[in-house]
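Below is a concrete protein record.
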Amino acid sequence: MKRKTLTGLEKQFFYHQLLTLVRSNIPLECVAGIAADKTSSILPDIFAMMSSELESGNSLSDFLEKHPEYFSSYESDIVKAGEKSNNMKHALKQLAKFGARKTENRSISSIHMIYLVVTIILALAILAMISFYVLPVFKKMHSSLSSFGGSLPGLTQLAFMIGDWKFLLTIFAIGILLYAGLYLKYPEFFSMVISITPILGPRWVYRECAGFCSLFGRALESGVAPLKALENSADFVSHQYLKKRLKNSGTYLAEHGHTWATVLEKIRFFPKPLISLIHLGEKYGEMGAALIEIERSEKDMGVDRQAIMEIFPLFIIGGVIAFVTFMVIAMYLPMFIMTGAV
């Protein structure tokens, strides 16, 4: 085996291949023969192992559980529920959509990561040009003020200070250390800080909650036990505060017997519109369907992953524009003062 993980596209293909066999009433053991020359370098080996396990009398869910490096407990539990209910078509269909969702998210993330990196490089290039080329020229120009007994305005002196490459490098290093320290040591606190930031925070929280609801709904629709479905779905939440509270909500529900909507309402940041939809789903016995529909409505509400990823470069561009504007005003301020004095 070359890798210890499967991409979203590979999982999507894996489950689509199994779904095709089930729909055609072909034994799953035959999957190795028809997939060996059509997939990535790692999938043929996985198909071969799976065929061997199934031929030995083990179930598909047993195989998935034996390989947690490739398959999550979320996937194995859905397959196990499909096996128990004799409805493997539905289970594999849900997992194929799960793989498609991972593929879409990864594709969007890759594109916007490139966009973000390019934006950061351009921002650093602009700051370097100001620090190494622009400021020295203005320092030489303004040095004549000192020879005539004049002094630079405070704003200009501040610009020379913060524009110095040593100062910029120090601020950059402090920012990286603070980010790493907060994220690694206090991930929940870091998540909460981002959640309360304007524009970005609410969008990120809604996206995380909607993604969780979609996974939770698919697990419920496949017949997975609610508490187990909740725990497995929460594993995919990147918002650390929400992840911990969601996992704890299962215990709270089991101990106090409230409805899901009531329990989720106690979680800070969980969007009220989602809670209302969950309440209606519980009321009319369509909890799973209501949860799945939540993510489908994201783009209609303008809270899709792409919109969230585009915000980061905009913040950087806005910051650079503000910095350049400040430097231009500060550099030309002495000239304006001298012109007014004349």
